[in-house]
Design goal:
38% of the residues lie in helices and 14% in strands. By secondary structure, the protein is of the alpha/beta class. It has two domains: 12-210 and 335-395, Crotonobetainyl-coa:carnitine coa-transferase, domain 1 (Rossmann fold, 3-Layer(aba) Sandwich), CATH 3.40.50.10540; 238-242 and 248-319, formyl-coa transferase, domain 3. The strands form three sheets. The protein has a six-stranded parallel beta sheet, sandwiched between helices. The chain has a three-stranded antiparallel beta sheet with strand order 7-8-9, with helices on one face. The chain has a two-stranded antiparallel sheet with strand order 10-11. Helix 4 (104-107) links the parallel strand 4 and strand 5 (123-128). Helix 1 crosses helix 7. The longest helix is centred in the middle third of the chain and has 24 residues, at 170-193. The chain is elongated.
C-alpha cells in the first residue's frame, strides 16, 4: 500500500550549477524524497527562471517543474566568503550535485579531493559536456553539440537532408537520468563500503549510451548506421504511415506473427503468406513493397479508424501526440501523469516523474521556490548561523 514515505527520505543533496542537466537530476531526486538545497547567485538566480514562456511575474513555467520540491538559497560563489559558506554546506550533505565546467570547483578550492578525509561519505556527482578527463574535458558542452558528438544527431533525420534535432534538450535530460542512476548506485555502494565516491556523468556519453548496436556492428563489420527517416534500419515493418485525414500513425508490425495479422488486416493476405517475408530478414529485403502495401491501406481510412482496426488485430500502433492530445487523453489522466502545483498566479500542471513505485511513490509537493526563499532557514538549521551573522552576509551581498 502507498505510504507518505519516499525512498530518498533523509538524503540531503546540495545542488550547484544552473540550466538543465544538473537541475533536472535534482528534480528527480527531490521528487522521490531527497532534501535538495539549490544554490543560486543572488539577484538573478538560475537562468531557467527566465527561459522560454514566462508568467506575469517574469518567471518561467519551466521553473515550476525543474525546481519542484527544492529549497532555494542564494550564495555568491564568486566571493571567498560565499565559497566558505558553501563548503560548510558540502560538509553537511550526502550528495553534491554540480554541473560547472570541469576544473571550476577545483579552482575555487571546492573539489571532491578536499572532502576525502573530512567527509569520506560524501557522494560528489559531476555533470559536464565531455566528462572530467580527456582532451575535450575543458570545452563547453551544451546538449546540442554533445548530441552530435555522442552519435545521436548523425542517425537522426533523413539520408538526403541535414541531421535534425528534436525540439527538446534531449542530451541534458539523458545526462540527468544518468546522474540520478549514478547517485543511487553510489548511495547503495556506500551502504557496503561506508564511503562516498565521485560520479562522473557527461552529456555526450549519456547520448552514446543510447547507441544500441552501433558500436559492435562497426567493430565486427565496419557498418556505419545511417539516418533512415521514420524507419528503423534492419527491422521491418516499423514506420510512420499517412492516413486519409492527413494525420500519421506509427505501426510496429515487425514480429513474425504480428506481421501476418497486419497484412491480413490490410487486405494483403498474399503478403501475409508469402514465404519470402516469413521472417525479419526476408521482410528487410522487401521493405519498399511492404511499406507501400501498408500505405495503400492506411490512406483509405482516418487515423482513428486505422488505429481501431489495428487494435482489434492486436498490432502495436499509436497516434503521434502533441501536448494538447496528451491533456485530452484519459489514459494519461488515469496514469496520473499530471500533478498540480501552486505558483504566484494560481495553479499549474506539471509532468509527474517516473518510474512509478507501488509503496513509496514520489510526488510533487511544491513548485519552484522564490529566489533565496530558504536561505535563512538553511543557514540556521544546517550551519547554526544566527540572525546577526546572516544579516552581515546579506549586507555584504554574499547571500
Amino acid at each position: 500500500m502507498p505510504t507518505d514515505q519516499r525512498p530518498l527520505d533523509g538524503v540531503k543533496v546540495l545542488e550547484l550549477g544552473q540550466l538543465i542537466a544538473g537541475p533536472q537530476a535534482g528534480a528527480v531526486l527531490a521528487y522521490f524524497g531527497a532534501e535538495v538545497i539549490k544554490v543560486e547567485p543572488p539577484g538573478r538566480g538560475d537562468a531557467i527562471r527566465s527561459w522560454r514562456k514566462l508568467d506575469e511575474s517574469g518567471t518561467s513555467y519551466w521553473w515550476q517543474s525543474i525546481a519542484r520540491n527544492k529549497k532555494s538559497i542564494t550564495v555568491d560563489l564568486k566571493t571567498e566568503q560565499g565559497r566558505s559558506v558553501v563548503k560548510q554546506l558540502m560538509g553537511e550533505v550526502d550528495v553534491v550535485l554540480e554541473n560547472f565546467r570541469p576544473g571550476t570547483l577545483e579552482k575555487w578550492g571546492m573539489g571532491p579531493d578536499i572532502f576525502k578525509e573530512s567527509h569520506p561519505q560524501l557522494i560528489f556527482t559531476r555533470v559536464s559536456g565531455y566528462g572530467q578527463t580527456g582532451p575535450r574535458a575543458s570545452q563547453p558542452g551544451y546538449a546540442s553539440a554533445c548530441e552530435a558528438y555522442g552519435g545521436f544527431r548523425y542517425v537522426n533525420g533523413y539520408p538526403d537532408r541535414p541531421p535534425v534535432r528534436p525540439n527538446l534538450s534531449l542530451g541534458d535530460t539523458l545526462a540527468a537520468m544518468h546522474a540520478v542512476i549514478g547517485v543511487l548506485l553510489a548511495l547503495f555502494g556506500r551502504t557496503n563500503t561506508g564511503r562516498g565516491q565521485v560520479v562522473d556523468v557527461s552529456i555526450f556519453e549519456s547520448v552514446y549510451n543510447m547507441m544500441e548496436s552501433v558500436v559492435p556492428e562497426y567493430s565486427a563489420e565496419q557498418i556505419i548506421r545511417e539516418p533512415s527517416g521514420s524507419t528503423l534500419t534492419g527491422i521491418v515493418p516499423t514506420n510512420t504511415y499517412l492516413c486519409s485525414d492527413g494525420k500519421y500513425v506509427v505501426i510496429g508490425g515487425n514480429g513474425d506473427s504480428i506481421y501476418k495479422r497486419l497484412m491480413i488486416r490490410a487486405a494483403r493476405e498474399d503478403l501475409a503468406k508469402d514465404p519470402r517475408m516469413a521472417d525479419n530478414a526476408g521482410r528487410v529485403a522487401h521493405e519498399d513493397e511492404i511499406d507501400q502495401a501498408i500505405i495503400d491501406w492506411t490512406t483509405q481510412y482516418t487515423a482513428d479508424e486505422v488505429l481501431q482496426q489495428l487494435k482489434e488485430a492486436e498490432v502495436p500502433s499509436g497516434p503521434i501526440y502533441n501536448v494538447e492530445d496528451m491533456f485530452a487523453d484519459p489514459h494519461y489522466r488515469a496514469r496520473g501523469l499530471f500533478e498540480r502545483v501552486e505558483y504566484p498566479q494560481g495553479e499549474l500542471e506539471v509532468a509527474a516523474i517516473h518510474p512509478r513505485l507501488s509503496d513509496t511513490p514520489g510526488r510533487t509537493d511544491s513548485g519552484g521556490p522564490t529566489l533565496g526563499q530558504h536561505t535563512d532557514r538553511v543557514l540556521k538549521d544546517m550551519l547554526g548561523y544566527n540572525d546577526a551573522e546572516i544579516s552581515a552576509l546579506r549586507a555584504d551581498k554574499i547571500v
